[in-house]
Amino acid sequence: MINKLFKGKKSILSKLVFLAYSAFSLQMLRFNGPWLFLFLALIPSSIYALWQFIKAISRRRGPGPALYNFLGILLALFISFGFLINWDFSFYSGYINPDKVQVAQVVRAIDGDSIEVEFLDGSRDRVRMIGIDTPETVHPRKEVEYFGKEAYDFTRSSLEGREVYLEKDISNRDIYGNLLRYVWLKSPNKISLSKIRKNLFNAKLIDKSYARVVSFPPDLKYWSYFRTLELESRKEGLGIWNKEKREDFQNFPTIKELYKEHGKSLNFLGVIMSNLNVALEQKKRSAVFVAQMAKSLGADGAIVTEEGYGNPDADYILCLAALEDVGIKTVGISNECTGRDGASQPLVTLDVKANALVSTGNVSEIIELPPADKVIGELEALGRDGLSGGWAYDEILGGSVREGGSIIMENNAMFCGDMIAGWSTNFRRNWRRR
């Protein structure tokens, strides 16, 4: 069909029409569901099959295969159309089914994404907003999460005492018995990204960086819109997206010292974050980007710190070398992995350009910790295979967990709390005094 369509003097026009129709059908697949896409895709095929059938009849050759092709495509067309008329078409269209919308008044906010409402008949129910998740504030087994109170306050101040329009998707309730609904601030009609951003409160929580997107099929009506808003809010780095490494960077002593000296002995330009890569080419490219950014900022000197050890050593050294290559004097701060005896190579890789390195300690150094007042989880986990830093039994030292709850282990068991550049025993003592 496509070859014949593209032959002749009008082939360019035919191609443009074909491409435009294909793009339109794919857009329908993305936003409006597979059955509408199938229906649209079959229309040109059925037209071409009908034309072939008529041509065969006019030439008196008999219907033959042309008839079977036409009938087969026509059958598929009717099947897809049948699904369309029996499906809730508003689920995939730009319009909202009014039968799925209820008017209610918000009695109170329970959490950032949960509210209690009263309907026109006086009945009350709890509503869980579809497609989003705010940090916990009232979970029976979790502490209040970062930015949870702010999300709750926003929902409370925005909704309590207000009339809202609750739209149902596919599911009616969640496993806890809460109604699953989209919460509209105005009576919803035709759907668009601008109206969703402005009037759909679920989306407003995402847009204002109070919530992240979650997907629980089959309730996915606005998922693509929510994802668009989430990508935009993440770029801003505000709200819940300001959590990543916020505490580490705000409390990192080196950054504090640089701020203290800013405008006095130096001009502190800021922090460049670089990701940890796996492939060597990715590591090299990332190091070049770091050097280019530092050069464009007008930096004369730089301090490079490393989180972790082993694989990150390669990224660390490559960044140091790349900065030196563009004329920026560089100092590196990291821990070492030299074994319990301190005799092994300190880093996985080295470079002659990295000639100013500060060590924050040996990750394999043996440390002892007194019994903790509160233990979350199991201390015995330190002795299980695969957990770095601890052991079940050692001929000389015994087990990592001793009687009474004290612990002996390698320094690398503190991996998740190494403050960007590693913890030495001296560093820990200094940090405890702060």
Describe this structure in words.
This protein has helices at 2-5, 11-32, 34-58, 64-86, 148-159, 193-199, 201-207, 223-236, 246-251, 253-261, 280-296, 311-325, 425-433, and strands spanning 101-111, 114-119, 124-129, 132-133, 163-167, 179-184, 212-213, 301-305, 329-336, 357-362, 366-369, 407-410. Residues 1-10, 28-33, 83-93 and 424-434 have low confidence and may be disordered. 39% of the residues lie in helices and 15% in strands. It folds into three domains: 2-87; 98-242, OB fold (Dihydrolipoamide Acetyltransferase, E2P), CATH 2.40.50; 246-433, no CATH class. It has 434 residues and is an alpha/beta fold. The chain is built from 13 helices and twelve strands. The strands form four sheets. The chain has a five-stranded mixed β-barrel with strand order 1-2-3-6-5. Strands 8-9-10 form a three-stranded parallel beta sheet, sandwiched between helices. It has a two-stranded antiparallel sheet with strand order 4-7. The termini are far apart. The protein is extended. α11 (280-296) runs parallel beside α12 (311-325).
